[in-house]
């Protein structure tokens, strides 16, 4: 009996509220003009007027054309600039658990399983709605899954990190079948008043099922190797957390939302990720030339092109889903996988690789059964 595992099903969901660059920049620019008027009226501040944002620039530098939001009316309201998501009572399914289920149910169906077949549920996301009870336990209960559930959060690598934990739990015998949910609602921590990042993030939910290879059917993806890596950096950061209320002066400061040094991240990640993925391929005994596809974290189209070339050469296929969905945090690489896997043939090798805040990088080498 083999100890190998496989991804046996995947599901994805993007909310129907689509906002394109023109709409998003129009809201941002309306806020900029109002701010500049306010500054002009409060004469003597000496502040430079705030510059506007441009849809053409956004598309050119990032490859993003539109994105899907959990809620968009609040984001497009220059007086609010945040999704409007009302609190729910404790006896109702919580927002992020419900979002997880939108992808979990189709993932289970794709694997031909019911909730009760699962005995490990992991929710991995760049931000979690609350500290406790863990969202995974709520998802576990809603699906009727058995065993145990846990949440993990390691920036945009949360999906592949969770897949690694699930795979190793199955290999160690502490679980038989695992469900990994990645419900990302980064619009809720996006700073829609920050010119250099207001356009980046979008919302999406993805889920995958992991089983022993002996339980997998043809068409599933054997996990040939898995790796997780972290190295501390503040280049992508969000200081919002349980201490936020303890310093009233800084409570609403911009550092309590997503912020980054974009050019720095670009520079570092383009070098780091191909090196780590090539090491992983070497360990799995795969020649980089054999890689048919890489499903990368979706942050920047130019960055992904450079990374893909450094992993598998000029001809490797690296699907981009940024144009439609933007950067969906740790859902991005799995969304690319879910949407662009069916045309691969038996024996084809692909690499799933996510990277982001931390820095973190998580990758799986996959082979189609
Ligand atoms: C964020 C990112 C798209 C920015 O692209 P960039 O080419 O590096 O752009 P820069 O920040 O250097 O800005 C370049 C110019 O555009 C301008 N600019 C910034 N935001 C703008 C906007 N919204 N509209 C128009 N112009 C803008 C800047 O003012 C600057 O102008 P200048 O050259 O006259 O000074 C890019 O750096 C990136 O994607 N990095 C990787 C991020 C990443 O992977 N993060 C992981 C998160 S999970």
Give an account of the 3D structure:
The chain is α+β, with helices and mostly antiparallel strands. The protein folds into two domains: 129 residues, Thiolase/Chalcone synthase (Peroxisomal Thiolase, Chain A, domain 1, 3-Layer(aba) Sandwich); 148 residues, Peroxisomal Thiolase, Chain A, domain 1 (3-Layer(aba) Sandwich). It is 31% helix and 22% strand. Strands 5-4-6-7-1-8-13-12-11 form a nine-stranded mixed sheet, with helices on both faces. A two-stranded antiparallel ribbon has the order 2-3. The protein has a two-stranded antiparallel sheet with strand order 9-10. The chain is built from nine helices and 13 strands. Helix 1 crosses helix 2, helix 3 crosses helix 4 and helix 6 packs parallel to helix 7.
| N-C termini distance | 17 Å
The figure for the number of domains is 2
Radius of gyration: 21 Å
> How many beta strands in the DSSP annotation?
13
Q: How many helix segments?
A: 9
Instruction: Give the fraction of residues assigned to helices.
Output: 25-40%
**Structural class of the secondary structure composition?**
alpha+beta
Produce the secondary structure layout:
Layout: E1 5-13, E2 17-20, H1 21-41, H2 55-62, E3 66-69, H3 95-111, E4 120-124, H4 135-143, E5 148-152, H5 158-172, E6 177-184, E7 204-212, E8 221-230, E9 236-237, E10 259-260, H6 262-283, E11 291-296, H7 301-312, H8 322-325, H9 332-339, E12 349-356, E13 360-368
Parallel strand pairs: 4-5, 4-6, 11-12
Antiparallel strand pairs: 1-7, 1-8, 2-3, 6-7, 8-13, 9-10, 12-13
Helix pairs in contact: 1-2, 3-4, 6-7
This protein binds coenzyme A.
Coenzyme A (COA) binds at residues 53-54, 57-58, 61-62, 156, 195-196, 236, 260, 262-263, 265-266, 269, 299-300, 303, 327, 356.
């Amino acid at each position: 009996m083999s100890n190998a595992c496989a991804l046996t099903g995947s599901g994805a969901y993007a909310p129907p509220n689509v906002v394109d660059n023109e709409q998003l920049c129009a809201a941002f620019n309306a806020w900029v003009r109002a701010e500049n008027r306010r500054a002009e009226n409060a004469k003597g501040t000496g502040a430079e007027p705030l510059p506007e944002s441009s849809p053409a620039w956004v598309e050119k530098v990032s490859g993003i054309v539109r994105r899907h939001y959990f809620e968009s009316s609040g984001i497009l309201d220059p007086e609010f600039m945040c999704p409007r998501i009302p609190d729910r009572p404790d006896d109702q399914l919580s927002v992020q658990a419900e979002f997880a289920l939108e992808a979990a149910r189709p993932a289970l169906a794709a694997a031909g399983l019911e909730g009760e077949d699962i005995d490990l549920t992991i929710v991995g996301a760049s931000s979690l709605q609350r500290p406790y009870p863990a969202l995974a336990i709520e998802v576990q209960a809603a699906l009727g899954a058995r065993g145990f559930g846990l949440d993990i959060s390691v920036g945009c690598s949360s999906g592949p990190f969770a897949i690694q934990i699930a795979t190793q739990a199955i290999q160690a015998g502490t679980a038989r079948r695992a469900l990994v949910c990645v419900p990302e609602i980064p619009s809720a921590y996006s700073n829609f008043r920050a010119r250099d990042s207001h356009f980046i993030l979008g919302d999406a939910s993805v889920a995958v099922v992991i089983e022993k290879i002996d339980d997998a059917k043809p068409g599933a993806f054997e996990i040939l190797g898995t790796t997780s890596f972290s190295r501390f950096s503040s280049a992508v950061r969000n200081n919002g957390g349980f201490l936020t209320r303890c310093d009233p002066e800084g409570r609403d400061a911009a550092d309590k939302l997503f912020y980054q040094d974009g050019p720095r991240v670009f520079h570092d990640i383009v070098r780091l990720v191909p090196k780590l993925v090539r090491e992983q391929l070497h360990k799995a005994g795969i020649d980089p030339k054999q890689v048919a596809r890489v499903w990368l974290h979706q942050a920047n189209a130019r960055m992904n092109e450079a990374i893909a070339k450094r992993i598998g050469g000029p001809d490797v296929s690296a699907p981009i889903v940024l144009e439609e969905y933007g950067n969906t945090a740790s859902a991005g690489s799995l969304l690319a996988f879910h949407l662009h896997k069916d045309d691969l043939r038996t024996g084809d090798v692909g690499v799933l690789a996510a990277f982001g805040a931390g820095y973190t990088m998580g990758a799986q080498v996959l082979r189609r059964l």
